[in-house]
Amino acid sequence: MKTTEFTMPEITISYKDNVKASERVKILSSETSYSYLKPFYAECMEHHEESYVMFLNRANKALGVSLISKGGMAETVMDVKIILQTALKVHASGIILSHNHPSGNLCPSEPDKRITSRIKEACKCLDLVLLDHIILTDEHYYSFTDEGLI
């Protein structure tokens, strides 16, 4: 019997750091997070939901922000695998989830609470810390951490 050798598909990683450590923004609070994240939502804030994740190093300095998904008027998806894959790729120590509510309602939905809990548990397996989940509107924000939900 002849056997065929198969090569496993793999993700290749290339780490290119374009920002000096001294130039990175330090995230000190939910207000700092909101200010840093809000420009990413400029074109969708009141139109449709989007999800972004901010990745941080151990000093809570922002490594970058990644678009996770674009949704409709009432929901968007946060895929745990994609979030954690990106966190590992950028060598993050912590993450801050975010999404907007086009309706202007800052209250987190039950699905918002469930996915936050799932991601928090998944982060523990990889020695990552879920620092916050920010819900943004054009004028205000809701912080899961500030409200004691993380």
UniProtKB/TrEMBL annotation:
<dbReference type="GO" id="GO:0006508">
    <property type="term" value="P:proteolysis"/>
</dbReference>
<keyword id="KW-0482">Metalloprotease</keyword>
<dbReference type="InterPro" id="IPR025657">
    <property type="entry name" value="RadC_JAB"/>
</dbReference>
<keyword id="KW-0479">Metal-binding</keyword>
<keyword id="KW-0378">Hydrolase</keyword>
<feature type="domain" description="MPN">
    <location>
        <begin position="26"/>
        <end position="150"/>
    </location>
</feature>
<dbReference type="InterPro" id="IPR001405">
    <property type="entry name" value="UPF0758"/>
</dbReference>
<dbReference type="InterPro" id="IPR037518">
    <property type="entry name" value="MPN"/>
</dbReference>
<keyword id="KW-0645">Protease</keyword>
<protein>
    <recommendedName>
        <fullName>MPN domain-containing protein</fullName>
    </recommendedName>
</protein>
<dbReference type="GO" id="GO:0046872">
    <property type="term" value="F:metal ion binding"/>
</dbReference>
<dbReference type="InterPro" id="IPR020891">
    <property type="entry name" value="UPF0758_CS"/>
</dbReference>
<dbReference type="Pfam" id="PF04002">
    <property type="entry name" value="RadC"/>
</dbReference>
<dbReference type="GO" id="GO:0008237">
    <property type="term" value="F:metallopeptidase activity"/>
</dbReference>
<keyword id="KW-0862">Zinc</keyword>
